[in-house]
Amino acid sequence: EVQLVESGGGLVQPGGSLRLSCATSGFSFSNYAMRWVRRAPGKGLEWVSGISGSGASTYYADSVKGRFTISRDNSKNTLYLQMNSLGAEDTAIYYCAKHLTTPGAPFDHWGQGTLVTVSS
Amino acid sequence: YVLTQPPSVSVAPGETARITCGGASIGSESVHWYQHKPGQAPVVVIYYNSDRPSGIPARFYGSNSRNTATLTISSVEAGDEADYYCQVWDSNTDLVFGGGTKLTVL
Prior knowledge:
The complex is a heterodimer of chains A (120) and B (106). By secondary structure, chain A is an all-beta fold. In chain A, 0% of the residues lie in helices and 51% in strands. In chain A, the strands form 2 sheets. In chain A, strands 2, 4, 5, 6, 9, 10 and 11 form a 7-stranded mixed beta sheet that branches. A 4-stranded antiparallel beta sheet of chain A has the order 1-3-8-7, with no helix packed on it. The N and C termini of chain A lie far apart (40 Å). With 106 residues, chain B is mainly β. Chain B contains no helices and 9 strands. In chain B, strands 1, 3, 4, 7, 8 and 9 form a 6-stranded mixed beta sheet that branches. A 3-stranded antiparallel beta sheet of chain B has the order 2-6-5, with no helix packed on it. Chain B has strands spanning 8-11, 17-22, 31-36, 43-46, 60-65, 68-73, 82-90, 94-97, 101-105.
């Protein structure tokens, strides 16, 4: 059974940093592209960042480019998102999602999400 | 690339719900649909325009033509109440979600 379990969310002050993790199991992690997708309160889904299976290619939404860094450790089957210079607009539930195959393919599995709250 | 969905759709139980997703020449793209209930992980209900993942009831049907993709849910049940999102991947703009449609079962 495919499982994606996010962690690392919490309350952080504006300008602060957080590192999210997504522990995976039940599939050959290194073979699949992954993304982080968020949903802010009262808003819709927004993709944040993506990474190829090997980690060689990364993708960022304009709203987070230069502030967030996605990475993966294929030996640990874990996806990461380093978030710096956080602002109130980054408050959201962050989900990790597995692509069916490549970064252009649909998501076939999602985690339950981890809540990030940016507030003083 | 912009995908436009109606903010809300309301139907009575047993009726048919149609949720649209508008985009320029979207008929030439592959459209995927996700169901998102509060407190739960999103679930793909239709991918590649009309394919249904295993476990998704046949009541869920997808179509895509010209400038509009449509998710049709027949014989709507109370458990179908959720937010629904269309999504495409475009080689120029990468991944795009529609704004989402809240389906209310009256």
